[in-house]
Design goal:
Length: 295
């Protein structure tokens, strides 16, 4: 019997599904097995007292934090194995409490890329991952000398403005979405937008840049997808996250730790890029994660 993988419906998950060996795994999507209904309070309460399916088959639940979905798998399919693609700190207070309590009560196996979460909550650790199928779409022959950032402000605007200034003559493509409840000065508004970019537009702008900018949010631990994109796409990285130095494939010639690096940003950008080895890149792929979780 094939092992089942349950994905949340998204453009990224469809790329991940293409990396799954159909001879060993069956792919399911959340929308095909779970329909949201009313009375969620009672449904969540019931989840803590539900009985497991007799099957001991492990089911991989990818980037789904909703305990109602996890419990449906627990009751009807098999033993859930959850991959968290976001740190615990990113959850709302209510969802955080529900998730942590549920996985503890049910002894659910949880995996995370966030080292502090793995230690604090006794989760299994695996480095951050990306889709090798998606990365393969990028053309290595076309790369503009441009620095790219995309994300919601979340208190990072002032630092991003400073990075932009320090980049000097380098072309900058910063797509910063303003926080809904924050008031901005007229000067700051000129750096911001209220519109999100589409997934395809984001990818095109990543592929079209030679430098990716990664600014950590408060309380964030573990590296973001921007870091992995830089590693897999052979792009220089400007980041505020010193944890990058602990990653396999780190090269000081390729990574600038903003606010801590002793080099000037301009001198870093003049250094030749040193590509990662194929084996180093493979560590950060979905297919490798699957091999580790299901050896």
């Amino acid at each position: 019997m094939n092992t089942k993988i349950v994905f949340k419906e998204s453009e990224m998950s469809h790329f991940f599904s293409k990396e799954v060996d159909s001879s060993d795994f069956d792919v399911l999507y959340e929308k095909n097995i779970y329909q949201s209904k009313g009375l969620k309070f009672f449904s969540r309460l019931f989840a803590f007292f539900s009985k497991p399916k007799s099957s001991k088959e492990r089911v991989f639940i990818f980037s789904i934090e909703n305990i109602l979905v996890i419990d449906l798998v627990f009751r009807k399919i098999g033993c859930p194995v959850v991959w968290l693609w976001n740190p615990i700190a990113s959850m709302s207070f209510k969802n955080k409490i529900l998730f942590l309590l549920y996985v503890k009560v049910k002894s659910i196996e949880v995996w995370t890329f966030d080292k502090s979460d793995s230690i604090k909550y006794n989760f299994n650790y695996h480095p951050q991952i990306h889709s090798s199928k998606l990365i393969s779409l990028a053309s290595r022959n076309q790369r503009n000398s441009k620095a790219f950032f995309s994300g919601v402000d979340k208190g990072r605007l002032s630092l991003l403005k400073k990075i932009k200034k320090d980049l000097g003559e380098v072309e900058v493509d910063f797509h910063i979405v303003k926080d809904k409840k924050r008031r901005y000065s007229d000067e700051d508004i000129s750096f911001l937008t209220k519109d999100y970019i589409s997934f395809s537009d984001y990818l095109n702008r990543v592929f079209d840049s030679s430098i990716l900018v990664d600014v950590s949010q408060n309380q964030q631990s573990g590296v973001t997808l921007r870091v992995i994109e830089a590693f897999l796409l052979d792009k220089k990285l400007i980041t505020t996250n010193a944890e990058v130095m602990d990653l396999v494939g780190y090269r000081k010639e390729n990574v600038y730790i903003y606010g801590q690096d002793s080099r000037s940003l301009s001198s870093f950008l003049k250094e030749d890029y040193i590509p990662l080895l194929k084996d180093e890149k493979s560590i950060y792929t979905f297919s490798r994660l699957i091999r580790v979780v299901f050896p």
